[in-house]
Amino acid sequence: MLTLLNIKNLALVDHLSWQLGKGLIGVTGETGAGKSVIVGALKLVLGERGDKGMIRTGESSCSVEAVFDLENSKQINRLLEQAGVEACEGDQLIVRRVMGQSSNKQFVNNSPVTLSVLKSLGEYLVDLHGPHDHQSLFCIDRQLAMLDAYAAADKELSAYRDVWKAWKAKHNEYEALRKQEQAGEQELDLLRFQVEEIERAELKPEEESDIEERYQRASNSTRLVELATQTAGVLEQGVNESLSDVQRMARELERLDPAIRSLFEGLDSAIVELQELERGLVDYVEDLDVDGNEAQALEDRINTFETLKRKYGPSLEDVVVHGAKIRSKLDSYENRGELLDSLESEVKRKLEELKNLGLKLSDKRRKQAPKLSKEIASHLKELGFKQASFEVRLEAHASPDKGGLESVDFHFGPNPGEPLKPLRQIASSGEISRVMLAVKSALADQDATPLMVFDEIDANVGGEIARAVGEKMAALGERHQVIAITHFPQVAAVAAEHFVVDKQVEKGRTRSTMKKVDGDARVDELVRMLGGGDGERARAMADSLLAAKP
């Protein structure tokens, strides 16, 4: 439950520290006194967006802090863990919002969080209802959730949803592949072309450098023959003529002066090497095949390399890898008939399993729907709808839905003799407030939300009906903490605690305050609400309202 609400510089409130107890808590005050600030502060705690216009005039920021004491913080701690926030200490949760002129900040247990985290927490902390805050009753999904809570169908619903997710995933996979089969012939043609183009090239990445070297020789073969032949000719002439003369003269010098022999030690080997070089060049020319066709073929091969690299990768290795990928993709596409058959069988198997689980869930819903209808109708009678009818109707889906095999729609007939219609189509503001209270009363044992806030939901009612509304809220207060912001003394009188919001002017500034009233002060507030001034009759009526408190 909410144990403390601190508000600072929010609208007309400069500072308010509100300590709350258990049960039904009544909040009253004249119109414009600032009761709406309480609701506004709670909405900020629940993650609603605020704006700087909410900041009290003359201040740079405003803040709201709420302290909750939770009976069981396991679910809250799971949400906090997912958000990377410290868990509650001693089942106590602290939420704080700070809004400035240029920035807003929010904290949970002193750790900064996003608004989405606050909203997710708020769903488990506070259930807020006002004159225009009844959309949960109009939402078919929320109505279904209410029935499941009443039927205690959590286990069946969880099992159904697990299989539904698996079935939906397989169904989507099957449909996607089926559509590809219908519309993918153009893509298949492209894949076949690419695979054929790459595989026809019979690529071996290591051959690229060898091909380039061979092409370099082939493209320059004529010039190579010419140069090699000229070089061999020069060597032949030098070896046969000039070097033989050098060799003869060297022998004569050695004969005349043996000491010079060392100068000519390498002459014979040099002559032999030159002769070998000359013969090698002759062999090179003979082996060099001047074939224009080979040069063209090598050039075509290199062009193939470059074309494939431009299309499929910067290197031949990348081209080969890409070819393997699209071959695998093509194989899967060309064999998708078998895959489709396999997926279709899996979808049918999952669907059969889903329907079996759905029937178990549906059976529980159909058994409990009449009971919930009867219980809500009973509460409605106590709230003034003496001859009203209420039904929780189930309507089968054409195909399984995330929530089950059927939808739920609350039907309401406030007037006898008139057909029941969907609640969202016929209920007036006053009617929907009491219907909501009846639903909440019927689901009081299943609703785990610790705090319920009713913001003037008793509008457009009065007299005994207002008293009945108050008693219903008081009954809810036995299982939950309930805050009722009201203008009706019949409601305020049955509250376990009664707080009055007042507007004061001090030093030219208006400020809203809140105080708890007991005894004579509480009677005085009820008299004011009754419009009786200081009359004895009004005081007697206020005393009687308090005396009749359940």
What does this structure look like?
By secondary structure, the chain is of the alpha/beta class. The chain folds into two domains: 2-130 and 420-547, Rossmann fold; 152-368, no CATH class. 56% of the residues lie in helices and 19% in strands. The protein contains 19 helices and 15 strands. It has helices spanning 35-45, 74-82, 115-125, 135-138, 140-151, 154-183, 185-200, 207-219, 221-256, 267-287, 292-312, 316-334, 336-382, 423-426, 429-442, 463-476, 489-492, 519-530, 536-547, and strands at 2-10, 13-19, 24-28, 61-69, 92-100, 104-108, 111-112, 126-129, 389-401, 404-413, 421-422, 451-455, 481-485, 497-506, 509-516. A six-stranded antiparallel sheet has the order 2-1-4-5-6-7, covered by helices on one side. The chain has a six-stranded mixed sheet with strand order 8-12-13-3-14-15. The protein has a three-stranded antiparallel sheet with strand order 9-10-11. Strand 14 and strand 15 form a beta hairpin. The mean pLDDT is 85.
